[in-house]
Design a protein that fits this description.
With about 325 residues, this protein is mainly β. The protein folds into three domains: about 5-125, Nucleic acid-binding proteins (OB fold (Dihydrolipoamide Acetyltransferase, E2P)), CATH 2.40.50.140; about 135-225, OB fold (Dihydrolipoamide Acetyltransferase, E2P), CATH 2.40.50.140; about 230-320, no CATH class. The chain contains four helices and 20 strands. It has a six-stranded antiparallel beta sheet, with helices on one face. The radius of gyration is 26 Å and the shape is elongated.
Length: about 325
């Protein structure tokens, strides 16, 4: 039975005996899923993670994607062909969805040839992209989309009941020009460290219109990317090697620590500190434009005395005196 015909029709009864299906596993991708969380005060910890996988199957003509739950994930290998027995078809309308369960068996069978075009389509099906939509137009967008904006607000993680399970959710407000949109980060996405002022691109989100305006939420396929931004930094002073105590954990031979006008300190690679700055900093505060990317510590980070859950990495800066790297 060809996949194209299979996904376009459905057995008349759920008890129909379906014949073995000859397919090849073109692509296989890890898809771990947290199924249990521990909530203690403001701390949330995943306590049980299922090591699921997503597979793209082909009969040599068409493609479909299935989820292999942990118990089934080790039974197939990418590039191998199988005869599937004990599969089912789900969904209320065509195209239907191929589903496997604990009763499904995979018998190693003869190889199926697939064209380069099928391989390319399998890549796209396994990791589909979503269109980047301006925040002012996201209300009109149908289906999944990607959005981008500066983080204006970040809430604390809260416990929300989703069906029978309690899951973590964190809300952020993204801003693009004068448009602000609330985005709810569900499950694993809620655990990512996010700070006000960062610029994010968030993929595979869906929106719905409420009395409070457009509300957006992440999905199982969401990816959050932090964009590098240019920031203006004013350096008041520098901690030289001679100033670092012998008991300090700071690797003084590889980094230099500077004091910013905000009261935060920034640790940077020594190679980015021009010896000429030693004299300039004695005359007046040093203003620099830094290309930074937020990320959780450790490494070269700027820590605030009030908040130590994140930092900034410096890979480029230029001083107002004309020096640049």
């Amino acid at each position: 039975m060809a996949l194209r015909k299979l996904l376009g029709s459905k057995p008349e009864t759920p008890y129909a005996k379906l014949p073995p299906l000859h397919v090849v596993v073109l692509k296989l991708k890890d898809a771990p899923k947290v199924v249990a969380w521990d909530f203690k005060d403001t701390h949330v910890t995943p306590t049980c993670t299922k090591q699921n996988k997503i597979a793209v199957l082909s009969d040599g003509d068409s493609l479909t994607k299935i989820t292999l739950y942990e118990a089934m994930a080790s039974k197939v290998q990418e590039g191998h062909s199988y005869f599937m027995r004990g599969w089912t078809v789900t969904g209320s309308s065509a195209p239907y969805t191929l589903a496997v369960g604990t009763a499904t068996q995979f018998f190693r069978g003869s190889d199926i040839y697939c064209s380069e075009d099928l391989h390319n389509r399998a890549e796209t099906l396994l990791d589909p992209s979503t269109p980047l939509v301006d925040l002012r137009h996201c209300q009109q967008q149908q289906g999944l989309m990607s959005v981008q904006g500066e983080v204006a607000e970040v809430s604390s993680i809260r416990k929300v009941q989703s069906g029978r399970d309690a899951v973590p959710v964190k809300s952020i407000v993204l801003q693009q020009d004068n448009i602000k949109v609330t985005l709810s980060l569900w499950r694993e996405a809620a655990m990512q460290p996010i700070n006000v002022g960062e610029v994010l691109e968030v993929s595979h989100v869906k929106g719905r219109t409420t009395q409070y305006g457009i509300q957006m939420g992440t999905t199982n396929f969401t990816r959050i990317q932090k964009q590098q931004t240019l920031q203006q930094l004013t350096i008041l002073g520098v901690l030289t090697k001679d100033d670092v105590p012998s008991c300090s954990t700071t690797p003084a031979d590889t980094i230099i620590e500077v004091l910013l006008v905000t009261g935060s300190t920034l640790q940077i690679p020594e190679t980015l500190w021009d010896p000429a700055f030693d004299d300039l900093i004695l005359q007046a505060p040093l203003n620099v434009t830094a290309k930074v990317e937020a990320f959780p510590p450790p490494s070269y980070v700027a820590h605030s005395s009030a908040h130590r859950d994140g930092g900034i990495e410096l890979d480029y800066w230029s001083a107002e005196y004309g020096a640049s790297w």
